[in-house]
Amino acid sequence: MSKIKLAIFDMAGTTVQDNREVEKCFYEAIVATNLSISSEKINSMMGWSKILVFETIWKEEIGESHPYYQNKVQESYQYFCKILEDHYRARGAKPYEGVLDVFEFCRSNDIKVALTTGFYRKVTDIILNKLGWDNGLNSDYVNLDKTGNHIINCSVTSSDVINGRPSPEMIHLAMQKCGISDSKEVINLGDTPSDLQSGYSANVYCNVGSLYGSHNQQELSVLPHDKLIKEPKEIIEIIQHINL
C-alpha cells in the first residue's frame, strides 16, 4: 500500500474559513458590471481560476466572438480583484478549527503540505501573510528550511499554471515543487467539485471532499471521491489508516 508523502489542501472553504465571502465578492462584481447570474451558478464555479469564471459568464452572455468580449471580461475581473483584495486586507483570514493540528501532524510524520487555490497569486499572498503561513517560503513559494520552522511546504495558485481547476495542473506543480513523482503518494482535500475533479484527474491515492465548505454532501457525493469529511481533523485518521 502506498504511503502518503504529500498532503494537498485547498484554501478558502477547506483550510481558510469562508462564510461565502468569495461568492459575495463575485456577486458584487457581477452586479456592478451589469451581468445577470444566479448565486447557484456562481457557487457551481467555486474553485475555478477566477478569470475563467468571468470568461465563462461573458461567453454565455455575449459570446467570445463579440468585439467587446475581452474588455468585458477584464472589467468584471478587475472589479472582483479589487473588492476581494480589499476584503482580505481589511478583515484578514482565519484557519478552520483543527487545520493547524493537521499541519502539525503532517510535519511530525514527514508529510509535506501544499496549498492549492483558485485564487491568483496577489490575493493568495495577502491571505498567506495574514495567516503567517508564508513563513519560510522562498521566491518560488517553496520551503527549503529543514528545521521545521514553517507552516506549509509550498503554495500553488491558479495563476502559476496554464490551466486551473478542474485541470490537475496545480496538483502536478505542487508535486514537482515538493519533490514527489508518484501521485499514489498524494492525498488531496477540497470543498468544491473542481477540487475533486482535479484530484481524480491527477490520479491521487486518496481524494477527499470537505463538507464544511461551500458544497454539501449531496453536491459532492456525485463527484469522484474516496472520502467526505465534516471537519479538518478527520483527515488525520484517514492518513494514519493509509500509512499503517
From TrEMBL:
Native species: Sphingobacterium detergens
One term under GO cellular component: cytosol
Pfam (any one): Hydrolase
Presence of the UniProt keyword Hydrolase in the record: yes
GO BP annotations, alphabetical order: DNA repair
UniProtKB keywords: Hydrolase
Signal peptide residue numbers: none
InterPro entries per record: HAD-like_hydrolase_sf (IPR050155), HAD-like_sf (IPR036412), HAD_sf (IPR023214), PGP-like_dom2 (IPR023198)
Highest taxon listed in the record's lineage: Bacteria
Protein name: Phosphonatase-like hydrolase
GO molecular function, one term: phosphoglycolate phosphatase activity
PANTHER family: PHOSPHOGLYCOLATE PHOSPHATASE (PTHR43434), PHOSPHONOACETALDEHYDE HYDROLASE (PTHR43434:SF19)
